[in-house]
Amino acid sequence: MTENEGLEEVGPETERVVLVGLQRDADTLESAELSLDELERLVDSCGGEVIDKKVIRLRDPQPSTLISKGHLEMLKPWVDASEADIFCIDDDFSPVQQRNLEKYLGCRVLTRTEIILDIFATHARTRESMTQVELAQLKYRSTRLIGAAIASAKMGGASARIATRGPGEMQLEMDRRHIRERVQRLERSLQVIRSQRAIQRQRRMKSGMPLVGIVGYTNAGKSTLLNRLTQAGVLAENRLFSTLDTTVRSLAMPGGFEVGLIDTVGFVSKLPHSLVAAFRATLEEITYADIILHVADATSPRLDIECAATDEILTSLKCETTPRLTVWNKIDRIDDPVELRLLPHNRPPAVAISALENLGIAELLSAVEKMVLEHGHMATLLIPYDRYDLVARLHRESQVLDSRDAPEGKLLRCRLAPHLSAVVAEYLYTGAWDDEEEVVDEAYEETQEDLQNPDSR
């Protein structure tokens, strides 16, 4: 694209954005361009207008500005000609580098992380997701308060929108002490949410219903698949991160029994660590799944990268050993049967479907039922100390994931083999697993205002 292409007039509420991708020594030009294409979709999801974009080589990152003086001299007239409000780099960098870039380029400079945080802020709807987003924003932006926020405010003015909004929009005058106090309050709020989730989870586990988690890269079609399977009416837009909240719905298997389907937030490469930490109360629902469906967009040019990003998040959640079924979605967009055969074969078992066009759904249900029957479901048990024979049997015939001593007996968290369900039914445990899920009355009362009264924020 030339410097003057794409300079059509846009609405007064739309911020003009130019993007720069970095090709490091370990990157190919193609991978850098694909990552930049994704950043363009991210900017679109938070309401920005990408005017132009380009990839530059980054051989020697500069401590003061990240990119070299030569590149800056080349980029400055490009930014000026585009009349951009925002200059966004497809990477993360230090507050010092950000401030120096803003001073040189004369416009707001944003990191990839700030774009992702802004999308989460845009799509947060429930008290839980709004609390989680605000916590992530505060932790990230607290390191960038001095200088950068003031400079950005002067450059963006009252019309600045991207990366300046969201639940709990941060005011410039907030100092570190106030931010720290707010973070502590939000963390207590999330502790209450986590305990409430634990109660709901315990009820599901007590029912003995197997749980099937749906995960995958953002926009892979997870919510569309959930709607197809359960007619749940979950928001399913062709936009990145349109779903932030965990949804649990029941689904009847061909054999007659029911499973619970868990759909949660989509993943993305370079997902900010602050977001993973803040959304842990939501993401940890997946850790209780008996089986994980990894939904992947079979038509994506970044398929390997997207699968690797999903694998990385699941590993961080300690779900790498949970039985997994790969679901290649959107096969209706693949005309050549050869392309289907070229899908990665290092991820068995796998099925190919189109959630939108209802293709391969029967095969998917059969595969899910087979895996549930083969692998059993998650259960928390309290076994009396005089039944060590049963404890030993569970270790032999099921997968014990964690255990600890309690006054009344041995607490076990395990993936229960189907043939042992009736044997241990009387020992199902519905209490809190550990002390951090217990919420004292004082902390609970303090956080109710945050959870129930939006105006108190």
Describe this structure in words.
The protein has 3 domains: about 15-120, Rossmann fold (3-Layer(aba) Sandwich); about 210-375, Rossmann fold, CATH 3.40.50.300; about 375-435, Alpha-Beta Plaits (2-Layer Sandwich). The chain is of the alpha/beta class. Residues about 1-10, about 145-155 and about 435-455 have low confidence and may be disordered. It has helices at about 30-45, 70-80, 95-105, 110-125, 125-140, 145-155, 175-205, 220-230, 275-280, 280-285, 305-315, 335-340, 360-375, 390-395, 420-425, 440-450; strands at about 15-25, 50-55, 85-90, 110, 210-215, 245-250, 260-265, 290-295, 325-330, 350, 375-385, 400-405, 410-415. A 6-stranded mixed beta sheet has the order 6-7-5-8-9-10, with helices on both faces. Strands 2-1-3-4 form a 4-stranded parallel beta sheet, sandwiched between helices. Helix content is about 40%, strand content about 20%. It is globular. It contains 16 helices and 13 strands. Strand 1, helix 1 and strand 2 form a beta-alpha-beta unit.
Write a concise keyword list for the protein shown above.
four-stranded parallel sheet, 3 domains, 16 helices, Rossmann fold, 457 residues, six-stranded mixed sheet, disordered N terminus, Alpha-Beta Plaits
Q: Distance N terminus to C terminus?
A: 44 Å
User: From N to C, what is the helix and strand string?
Assistant: EHEHEHEHHHHEHEEHHEHEHEHEHEEHH
Average pLDDT metric: 79
What portion of residues belong to β-strands?
A: 15-25%
What about the largest sheet?
6 strands, mixed
Q: Give the CATH topology of the largest domain.
A: Rossmann fold
